[in-house]
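Shall we go through a protein fold together, starting from nothing but its sequence? Please make up or recall a protein chain and show it to me in full. Go ahead whenever you are ready, and we will take it from there.
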Amino acid sequence: MDAVAGRGPAALVVNTGARRGAEAFHPVQQALRRHGVELRVARAVLEPSTLPDVLREVLSSGHRLVIVGGGDGTISCAAGVLADLPRGSGAVLGVLPLGTANDFARTIEMPRDLEGAAEVVATGKVVDIDVGRVNQRSFLNVASLGLSVGVTQALKPELKRRLGPVAYPVASLLAYRRHRPFRAWLEFPDGDLESVELDDLLQLGVGNGRHYGGGATVAPNAGIDDHRLDVFAIEKGRMRDHVSIARLLRSGRFVEHELVRHFTTTSVVVRTDGSQPINIDGEIAAETPARFSVQRNALDVVVPRHVTGLRRENRGEA
């Protein structure tokens, strides 16, 4: 079954605070209709905190194809709302990448241009993917603490609008200069690994998806439907060490570096020496101690038909 047939009218919800949200709001409606989407509702979200209520409203009105435009934080929030619906609800997420990094769109191979994304929403296929949880808060890409929190704090909206994806390395340099190492204890509640203590850390990340941070890869074999979390811990080290690690971020092979520890697991509890804020898909939205887990096959999402690495395992037709 394709993304539209048999699902009735669709609803569009756009975070107009996203990098391209406001300018795309009207053009994308036209593009979706050109490609045959029966678009009945179009909502502009000015205040991100209202997004969950807006999504629940359109779902309660009977819309089963919910098309969400925004950055990774917006899409992650929408994923949590849809994943919380009862099994068999039939709700499907369509993605319009309108943010700065658009890492989830990269993971599902969604076109970055509006026309291409609209065409995929209209003609693509539905797959189901995993959703990560941090103390029940949802994430799609990576939840992390340490340097990434400093990067997020340095990524002011005006910097992202002015520089686009280049804002990430600029913010990373600013955050690196201010960073203070920390200690973490990892416990694995499902018993698949032994507990471990890690000291002098630059960053600790827990990946559900494949990409994060404007194009970095979580690990060479990471996937958003493998029912596993990739945990990586980077020690502080010297500047030249981190330059060598940075060169391996896009391939994901940084996890093989001598200053990096890498674990795969189904759940992990992270404790730190003092509470540490947690960056969840680009939004600082939790703190340690925290439990990370994976919700298997929790979200139906539209992807391009050429994508072969994702499928629909356990609900209805593909």
Notes: The longest strand covers residues 290-303. Residues 35 and 310 are 23 Å apart (CA to CA).
